[in-house]
Amino acid sequence: MQGIRFRRRHISRAGVSLLVVVLLFVAFPSLATDEDAPEQGTDAEESEHFEPIVPRNDLSIGGELYRSECSACHAATGIGGTLSFRDNAPPLKGFSALELAAAIRGGPGEMPFFGPDSISDKELEQIVTYSLYLQNPEDLGGAPIGRVGPVMEGLVAWAVGMSAIVLGLMWIGDRRA
Amino acid sequence: MIRGIVRAFDERLGTARMTREVLNKVFPDHWSFLLGEVILYCFIILVATGVYLTLFFDASQQEVLYAGSYVPLQGVQMSRAYASALDITFSVRSGLVVRQVHHWAALLFAASMVTHLLRTFFTAAFRKPRELNWAVGVTLLMLAMVNGFTGYSLVDDQLSGTGLRIGYSIVLSIPFVGPWLSSLLLGGEFPGADIISRLFVLHVMIVPSIITLLLVVHMVILVRQKHTQFPGRGRREGNIIGLRLWPTYAMKAVGVFFLTGAVLALMGGLIQINPIWMFGPFRAADVSSASQPDWYVGWLEGALRLMPAWELRASPFEVPNPFYPSLVLAGGVFLVLYAWPWMEARLTRDHEIHHLLDRPSERPVRTPIGLAAISFFAVLFVAGGDDVIAVWLDMSVNTMVRILQLLAIVLPIVVFLVSRSAIRLRLRKQQEKAEPFCPRVGHSRWEARTLAALVLVFVWFTVTSLSSPSPHVLPETWTAKANAGMSGAQMYEAACAQCHGQNLEGVFGPAIGAGTDSEDMSDTLIQAVVFAGIGKMPPMPGVLTEIQVQEVIAFIRQLQGIG
Amino acid sequence: MPNPRVPRVAFGVTILSGIGLLVVYGTGGQPQLEGLLWFYALAGLGVGIIVGANNYLPNEESEEERHPLASSEEMLAAARADFHRADGGDEALDAERRSLLRLLAGAFAAIGVAVVFPIRSLGPHPSDDLRETDFAKGVRLVTVDGAPVKSGQLGVGELLTVFPEGHTRAGDSPTLLIRYDEEEFLPAGGRASWVTDGMVAYSKICTHAACAVGLYQNVTGLLLCPCHQSTFDVNNACTPTFGPATRPLPQLPIAIDSEGFVVAQSDYPEPVGPGYWDRMNNV
Fold first, then answer.
1. In angstroms, rounded to a whole number, what is the distance separating the alpha carbons of residues B145 and B148?
2. Is C129-283 in CATH node 2.102.10.10?
């Protein structure tokens, strides 16, 4: 008798906790996507007939121009880069909007310039706006480790990840050889 | 009840005996033997996170206009693949952290493989009867590289497109079949209509299946042949001393799994990897400086950079330059790796069976060769990031390439010679002294301190990296009007001094101070020059408003007056 | 002796972190907190299990004998005999079997070849694609937005990335239109008529590994490929001066049409991009 009651109590306890979990799960707004996130995008081909849901804004136009005209030297993340023979394309950080605009129009040093026939005044403003954004961009993923890309990521993978794992293994396993 | 199930299985399959055999299996306890387990656990985590990502990723090259929540890309034309990768990042709850854990796990999957391979190499665990398992392991390393590259290329951002394009050039460079092979792989000329969906099949199905199969083979062979062990008290070729699998060793193995997962979770949450939203969609005409592959392909990238401008031509045929530092080099490296156990057995005339490991510090040939190889790959890896490193060191990238070309040849030789004489010296001293038995070192507290230091580093990372769940607000667009409030001097400093110098002395442009032509130019003329350009000075509209230009001119006049 | 505190605390941390994850997810998610909580959850499990195993489970070493893996000679002989069960005795029968086996091998080979054919469906014949771009006589050079380039639009030292009109997304068509410095520029032999209005057009696709050669240095007139540092001299027919590239960037002959827009005189006279086996057949 005791055994049966014991088991029943167990089952009911498990049932209650299961119910709680299910309720919590259902209570969440949605499992996968936030409500305001739209479905994918619109078809590019369709867009000839329909306006896109979200049009390009100054930042996204500036971003496209930045990536086609500037990123070859200053990198997509704006960290700058190397040129031949000990010349550098400087990082964007620290430059004021006016300095950026003047550099694009004027082309100091090795930098080519972009006149009003290639980049309109409006486009100039958009590129400068995106460059300002790149000085302090969204770092949703955590520490940006210099925004250098895979080289830095590889170094961190070894210096932080692999080292931590090896230390852990040395703690777990025998260290005498 | 459990007892009943066990009995039912045993009655049908006779499982008790097998179970006993497995539970009683002895594993020698040494931390470096756990490296192989880390590989397996990284793979498990890769599969788990990968399956989750697959549920949201859309491997299609169909062009869409991005309409997600990341403002700086809204309305931009891109492939569904990239758009869905952005959605995983910005819209799928937990999506970003899973993606980052997946990527870090891939980097550590390869890193733990290399570490495991080095352990096996330096302790000579590859010797008879384990040559086959060595070959299986080398194949796994190759597959890890392939799958890493395909995954890197799936996102379809500028970085993956650039990598893919270089990969395409390498396939194209294969003698005779290159053009055909690349056309068949991509479904046409680059970028090809089907490449993402084909890479997807390779990345999520074909290569992981082969990896799974080979991991099983690797472990079955391991169980059949039993683990190697270091020489020591009571340890002979004919026995194996260690912990029984059940329960202690199994629990430790489970612990290793969770600690591996913990490291990956921490990295995935706190250290940003591959911020795809910054690279933009792939455009054939664009490129970003500092475009590099993940580290396990980095050595090939480095070799491509260090290769002199040289290729074989016999009109009308040619074997282009990228073929040698990529396929020839990688082919050679893997060939040597595959052949090493047999090569060594042949050269040392040692065809005996070995279950006791070598100590790396006592091998005056093999260890130096391994170290030399490590230094060679290190040079290539550095070369793969030479543009980034040149900026860090404030050095000409051209000089850097020349130095690295030299180092790639010289450094391995130096490392070999130095480490060989060091080991020989040590051996001689050992013989002279007939070193007493090395005292046992107990578990000390140093690792606790190191772990505490690591935790501190991570806390620091957390504090500096916590990103607010951004509302993705569009910032105000900068216009020339925004300069309002700046003095003429400040505006001159920002807009003109880059070329004309702080004190009108001229840098890239001419001097415009006192006594120059500019002094005689009227204000109206200077204003016209600013907006329309003159000679090599480009027109600069949109930078300053008319009133602002007048303020700057007033400042220039002031300076000219002083001069 | 065993100290129960560490595993207890560790498992407690895991439980708390699990609850924390639930809360974080429920309130909208935050990547850093999620990563951190997952770390605490998993590290708690790992540390708890390992310390627990060290403290509460037997830790003494055991010994196991290794048995030779190789089989005895008798076993090998027996296996060999089993394998050759069908052999021996009747020579006529053996010959018959052998010829049958040969036929079987032929059958398998035929299937093997047949299996390979469908691979051909994966892609078209490559050579025409590699030779041609979308440029042709009279095709206008347009920017990425589709705007045609006018004569005199560029100032000295300015450059534009251009495409054949209507094909701004093609992989092999990106072209650099550069207004060169007349004092520095040396037109290559026989190509004096390929430039127009002080402008010269080169393929933007690197002849080494097909990256976009996007890095233009205005003063030195050098084009640098950011992928592998191949450097090309714009004022000297884009011959490579540094890095692994072996060939100059192909030049596109350009002219001005009646409406004053820049057009191509023809397609590129040689294949653009990286080398391949029979490239020179296509020159």
1. 5
2. yes
